[in-house]
Request: fold
Amino acid sequence: MSKIKFFLGESMPLEMHKVRVVQKLNLIPIEKRKQALDDGGYNTFLLKNREVFLDMLTDSGTNAMSDRQVASMMVSDDSYAGSETFYRLEKELQSFFGMKFFLPAHQGRACENIIAKTFVKPGDIIPMNYHFTTTKAHIELNGGKVEEVFTDEAVKITSTNPFKGNFDLDKLKKFIKEVGVSHIPFARIEMGTNLIGGQPVSLENIKAVANICHKNNILVVTDASLLADNLHFIKEREEACKNMSLHDIVLEIAKVTDVMYFSARKLGCARGGGICVHDVKLFDMMKDLIPLYEGFLTYGGMSVREMEAMAIGLEETLDPEMINQGPLFIEAFGKKLMEQGIPIVTPTGGLGCHIDARAFLPHVKSEEYPAGALAAAIFLVGGIRGMERGTISETRNPDGSEHPASVELVRLALPRRVFTMSQISYAVDRIAWLFKNRDLVQGLDFVEEPKVLRFFIGRLAPINNWSEKLVKKFREDFGDSL
Ligand SMILES: *Cc1c(COP(=O)(O)O)cnc(C)c1O
Reply:
């Protein structure tokens, strides 16, 4: 938590950095935003950046780099094999995680491909606190299935539980007994549980999960993509960790982890990824796949510039004032939204603010994708691009029926160090207006539906042309405002 106290009472997140490079933004009129939605199939993934004012789609690869990171990119050593840059990054990772071996990959999902190909056989079931879209897809492509063993708190939208990302340990034990260890090659712990609102896992829970797994000869795989936010929350919310340094906490997590992987598009504020292990046997099991899918073992599909920036970014992740910037902004954003009566996931977590689309649009059925419709409407009224994290992000049942998501969320990601508080206030203003006019928003219908990960490039259309009605009301209320 920021150590600064304020005289005027209201506390606010205060940036411990200054902005020295800026990028001009466009805010196009609402009629053009509607055209952009029509052209992009009401899928915020298919919008063009020039149409977007505040890009809150994701924190993946969009975090602002530090001056030290940018400077490091200039001294990278470029070589197909054996570059100095690789050895610098390897050394940084060995120190960061205390794990001896490192396999580079071009991003987080590429690590998931390597891990799933190496360890998952048809019939296997992988327990985890919650799935992530690409993780589940890779496990299923290799004939496995995913079993979520979260606590009842995890999918409660409003809660005061500080660690909604925790495993339910009894469910995990029961699951292992029922399925049998021969079908469970590993358990996966996701830090900063993405799809339920960037909710953290406690260090205590991580250790307990690892203990159960290791007693049963099950490997522990930790997805550290959202480690930075999770670290902040462990330090802030877990009594036993108050006096530990951030690095101590990372090392404790890594100590009980067999296979650590991460997306460096998030962790380390660069672009890339990697897998770290303690044991040379695990390293040998995976290493042949790296040149096949990623690139040679000393770059794994990453540019050397990004690798240099990642090494510095990892080092900076151990600075409390660097990693608190995201969570504190998200908390302030969430507070302002709640003051307007807007339903969000609480407590606020990492990576973004999550609006509860089921409560925002109670009249839209799951089969008509409330979170997808709300994400499109938020773009329409404010040029703010969020991401659907609801039923569109799920996969249909084998019989073709919809599989309604347990929670219907619109995520407004706050890439680290990118937005200012006035931009956040603008977003709150537009979302508050939309909330007042929410009856005008209806659902969406698929026009083009891909079989795998349909949320990325699927195209939809608004039921009953609701977007037109919303544009009309906007003009009535705001005149010629952008
Ligand atoms: C983003 C993310 C991934 C995938 O990483 P990419 O670099 O986008 O491929 C995996 N797991 C979690 C928890 C993530 O947030």
Observations:
- The chain has two domains: 30-59+322-478, 67-320.
